[in-house]
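pasting for the record
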Amino acid sequence: MNHIAVKNNERLSLTSIPRSDYERFLEHNTALLDDSANHCVTYFGVPEDGKIKLICGIANDNEHNIYLSCAEINRTEILPSFSKHHLAFQVFERELHENFGINFSDHPWLKPVRFAFDRADKDSCIEYYPFYQSDSVELHEVGVGPIHAGIIEPGHFRFICNGEQILHLEIQLGFQHRGIERLFLEKKTLLQRTTLAESIAGDTVAGHTTAFVNLWEALCGFQADDELRFTRTLALELERIAVHTGDLSAICTDIGYQLGNAVFGRLRTPIINFFQQWCGNRLAKGLIRAGNNHFPFDKELGIALKNMLDQYKPDFNEICQKTFRQPSVLSRLEKTGVVSWEQAGSIGAVGMAARASGSERDIRKTHPHDKYINLGHQPVIKHHGDVYSRVQVRKAEIIQSIGYIRDLLMHLPAESREKKELGSPAANSIVISLTEGWRGEICHCAITDQQGALRHYKIKDPSIHNWVALALAVRNNEISDFPVCNKSFNLSYSGHDL
């Protein structure tokens, strides 16, 4: 067997991962992706004795397993690429090239991903990013950014257009590489590392922090009790409602529908205000902790949350009816920004973007954790892959999340009276933790050394898969449709620029 199968949040001895030569490693993992039930959740390199140890994790959605395999290579080798066989590997191999100087003989798009401060080639500068160009006199280029019109982080979008029609979009990120993965190794206390996890993407505090604490507890052999699992699941679903609602507001802004913008925006406020009431922070910072819960959820909070949702839902349903019956709204959303099922599969799209194109990929069902193990989650699936499908997924997931929260509130956990010691991470171990953030699949992976200290920490935000989906979505659309296409994905700059 060329791999070992593990479950989400299962600790494994590092030496138990089967090691093979690179050719067999390539053949095995690319063959796994021939099955549409499999997709790559992580693929990275770890320096080891002057060489690079490549570790690949392929998740199977039917068997609920993650297949781990590894190979050892020299930095100077020129290797055949996984990406030639499956485009979904392209960003992982570009990162390997940037971080370690590994070269691939047949990679289709071997360009920098982040311009990391510790990149292998210091002469590779963001100012000289090698954009795709066309010399046709009939075409013109349009550059947007990197200074953003709003308040989010910088990113540059380079369009090639024929008149108003977009023929090609290339997206350049990496302007503010923060080195968060390196900081996980440099910071030594659990609180510091938890704070880092909360800061990976400001709109996904619950998603990334849950991945981190589940991973850390698995490393320590700690079993989370019902109260901890309740807190994490409730926070994830509240975060989903809040961001989806805010995104519906922003989409209405981009098509000039001010009533929708105002009402959806107003409805987001009580959701994030409830986080403030619960833990003192509107983004849920401070709420989720490994092995501990500083903000127990009591009956009074349950009553407040139920009353808030009782007021939210009818207003939400009413504004949805008004918005999505407007011909002027539908004309801007339907058949705009289409990503087909085949395209989503080829690039390894995840989360809401994948489900709007007919994919059932959802960690809450395929690799459940915390209370999702008992919720029996069924993903919301749409099939047209356009902006309207992504809007409909948001709308349906909000209603679904409200249902999950009401179910959770009917079974409030008792506050844990006996506090268990968290313990220390096991030595020479690896854990992969997957969560389904509101944007999609989040993956954290940690490796410990012989003393149990963190040796390597790898983070994957769903945006790293889905930026290519945005570039595909805008092709053959008018450039005036780019804002609403962009917002229909709402990808993360900071989550990408780790």
